[in-house]
Design a protein that fits this description.
Keywords: ATP-binding, Nucleotide-binding, Transport. Residues 3-230 form the ABC transporter domain. This is ABC-2 type transport system ATP-binding protein. One of its GO terms (molecular function) is ATP hydrolysis activity. This protein is of the alpha/beta class. It contains seven helices and ten strands. The protein has a domain at 2-84 and 153-163 and 181-229: P-loop containing nucleotide triphosphate hydrolases (Rossmann fold), CATH 3.40.50.300. The strands form two sheets. The chain has a six-stranded mixed beta sheet with strand order 6-7-8-3-9-10, sandwiched between helices. A hairpin with a 2-residue loop joins strand 9 and strand 10 (207-211). The longest helix is centred in the middle third of the chain and has 14 residues, at 134-147. The protein starts with a strand and ends in a 5-residue tail after the last helix. Bound molecules: adenosine-5'-triphosphate (ATP). Residues 12, 15, 17, 35, 37-43 line the site of adenosine-5'-triphosphate. Residues 12, 15, 17, 35, 37-43 line the site of adenosine-5'-triphosphate (ATP).
Length: 235
């Protein structure tokens, strides 16, 4: 399976944020998306999730060499700021999500199995989501996105505000989930990107380019990324 973006562009009035995004993502890989503040990472995710209209270009899936339209259930999107219904308990939210997606979720599991999977403690499962910490809300958002088994999982800086233990658990989780799907992960934490991702992709000057990590040790590779991103400031 591939996820192919061709000549995608997006402007905000006169500001050209995405100029010509042309990229092919392949199943089984985690892609680390790096870019300066304001480079357009969230805008790209919003366009791919169809929350925002693009100004040009297209994107589609390719299965067994055949192109097909992107269906809503193909894309999972975890926002950097978790948005969950605060008036529900963790358990109510999960049950509600499973109920409304009953037809599309293959092999639903008992609720506690999902909570166990995300290491959400039994005493927290019946608490209101408004009383969940940022990291716990983030886990819930991640959970509902992975239950739905999207082909493409977009993660907008999901680990930035998590403590080291939860961040490590999330990393393990993402690694365990990567087969059979495309994971695109935006982050400002370069070590995390180098550690977790199979490919590093830079969003720079409105285009996406892969950074070749062949034959470079980690420090040289980091310098190369910083040098490439620094160019952006001379615009
Ligand atoms: N709805 C909008 N209306 C106008 N301009 C916008 C809108 N959304 C984003 N922008 C602009 O588009 C540019 C890219 O923003 P975006 O949030 O996509 O960047 P980012 O790479 O995710 O940044 P960061 O790393 O700081 O989160 C910025 O200049 C931003 O001000």
């Amino acid at each position: 399976m591939k996820f192919i973006i061709e000549h995608l562009s997006k402007n905000f009035e006169k500001k050209e944020v995405l100029r010509d995004i042309d990229f092919t993502f392949e199943s089984g890989k985690i892609y680390g998306l790096l870019g300066r503040n304001g480079a357009g990472k969230t805008t790209l995710f919003n366009c791919l999730n169809r929350d925002m209209k693009t100004d040009g270009g297209r994107f589609y899936m390719e299965d067994g060499g055949l192109p097909r339209e992107v269906a809503a259930e193909d894309i999972g999107y975890v926002l950097s700021t978790p948005t969950v219904p605060e008036f529900l308990t963790g358990r109510e939210f999960l049950r509600f999500f499973l109920d409304i997606n009953e037809k599309s979720i293959q092999d639903p599991r008992p609720l506690d199995e999902y909570f166990d999977y995300m290491s959400i403690e039994p005493e927290d499962r019946n608490k209101l989501l408004k009383d969940y910490s940022h990291g716990m809300k983030n886990k819930m958002q991640m959970l509902i996105n992975i239950i739905a088994r999207p082909s493409v999982l977009l993660l907008d800086e999901p680990l930035t505000s998590l403590d080291v233990v939860v961040a490590e658990e999330m990393k393990q989780l993402l690694r365990s989930l990567k087969n059979g799907r495309i994971t695109i992960f935006s982050t400002h934490i370069m070590d995390l990107a180098l550690d977790l991702c199979d490919e590093i992709v830079l969003l720079n000057h409105g285009v996406l380019e892969v950074v070749d990590r062949a034959d470079l040790d980690s420090s040289e590779f980091k310098d190369k990324i910083i040098a490439a991103l620094r160019e952006e400031s001379h615009d």
